[in-house]
Amino acid sequence: MKRERSERSEPVRPPAPAPAPATFGADRDGRRHTIFTLSSDAILTIGDDYVVREANPASGAILGWPEAEITGQRCFDLLRCRDSRNLLLCDTPRCPLRQALAAEAPTPPRDLSWETRSARLCEVSATFTARGAGEQRHAVVVARDVTVLNAANRVRANFVSMVSHELRNPLNSINGFLDIVLDGQTGPLTPKQREFLTYAYKSTQQLTTLVEDVLLLSKADAGHYLLRLAQADVGALAAGAVQLAQQAAAKARVTLRVEGTEDVSPVYGDDLRLSQVLNNLLSNAIKFAPEGSTVTISARCIEDEVEIAVTDTGIGVDYDEQARIFERFYQGERGGRRTGGYGLGLTIAKMLVEQHRGRIWVESEPGAGATFYFTIPIAAAPGD
What is the pTM of this model? Predict the structure, then answer.
């Protein structure tokens, strides 16, 4: 008799476990705790009573206090914030914590000095951001120790300043003696001698300009540069810049024109430095303007500012260069064309405009010219 094969039954498998509920809040808190603990920046939470509620390990390392002893201390006993002039800010309207707690929006980063437990001053770049409301109002302070970086920057700035000063005197002497020789005061020159001496004279003038520019930037970086602010006439500034650039424009066969400056209000600025801004922008425009074209200076009032524009009809500025054109020593190739210079003219123009609390930017379509704009605050009327 034939035996029937019994069917093998499949093993019963337990049902798959239900997925665990997402713990986004826990993950977020875990990440926050990791950042708080491992960050190399000091992070403190300070209440509106100026008492430190939380501090991470980096705070203790920067301030020289054991982490457990930081919490519970009052801010002005722990940090004793000082400004760049070493003036104590505690219990003053300029206290960054007070300003942050009173502000509706985040306050910009501050360069401060904190006093460590050993009474040593530690330079920090700090942000103070208010959080919460009512009794829960507090500020989160994030600070980075920049003592070593600032010291290195000061050494670099002092070195550049020293070298610039040391170079300026011999260059002035060389320029002076070349001028005397070219003027024929030491005797007649052959055409070839005059040609070679002229090359040398132009080269030393270029080097002198470079030294002056580097020295100006060095002073600004070190905070030793001040503007002599007064009421300034935009029309007079534009006319003076055109007169100074006339020789270079004639050599390039470019016409210079001024429009609309007689209708704008006086600005509040430094005549000499605003002239330097216009000279740098005009020089830049003349380099790229085609022969027979016109470079125009124009101006108009916009609310409480005067907007000044320098326009050329040259090859324009490529889009990828527009974001970098004001960087130090950056020399782009506008339309594949590189010109002489050291890449500091636009950098200095930007620095001077921003010191006037203005803005500077470029608008350009490649192949259709470029316009450099900058703004300067309008001078207040007498009695305002």
Answer: 0.57
